[in-house]
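Lecture 7 notes: from sequence to structure.
We start with the chain below.
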Amino acid sequence: VKRNSGRNEAETDESFTITTFGDREDISSNYRPEYGIILLDVQMKSMDGIAEAKQIRELDNNVILIFITNMAQYAIKGYEVDAVGYLIKPVPYFAFSQELKRSLERLRKRAKNYLILPVENGFLRLDITDILFIESEKHRVIIHTMSEEYSMVGTIKEMDAKLKNDHFFRCNSGYIVNLAHVTGVQEGCVLVGNHSLQISRPKKKAFLSALTDYVGGVGK
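Predicted structure tokens for the same chain:
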């Protein structure tokens, strides 16, 4: 598979970062949701690929799983862990390249809905629909989501540039608001979840216009 990946890079100009695990290495141990695609052998000497996939799915709902097996009936097991496909050993290059092409297309469609954020020892893939608002704090930004908060080095300006086309609006110098989570506007403040964030006077008109356009667009 690694050899096929190298050939695919040469033929398509796609670039991959490849991490390999031996059959005695438990990929689900200390797993971080930083992979786009995982190709997983169903039958290994020291572990069960299906069981590994179930562990991965408990930690990552988004990674694309592709099974490698010498028995086609194992493909049915893939439905239990939302695998997108399977490859039969020995893996022919054409089948591999087509499966990889299909998976990359799915990743590209998803990419616009996610932020890749640096965390300790890796990266976190965060669904932007879960973000309530982003707060600036000195040289860091705090991302407030529906369930957690993430703090990292960065600027509000950088985050604004990343999210400007995704229905987010910078209501003042210190906050970027997800318009999808706005529940009201009162006394110069925007209500987001349990938070009341001030709208700066220079941005008030533009903010209300953006919110009106968003609500009108959702209703169409």
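Points to note: The radius of gyration is 22 Å. The CA atoms of residues 172 and 200 lie 5 Å apart.
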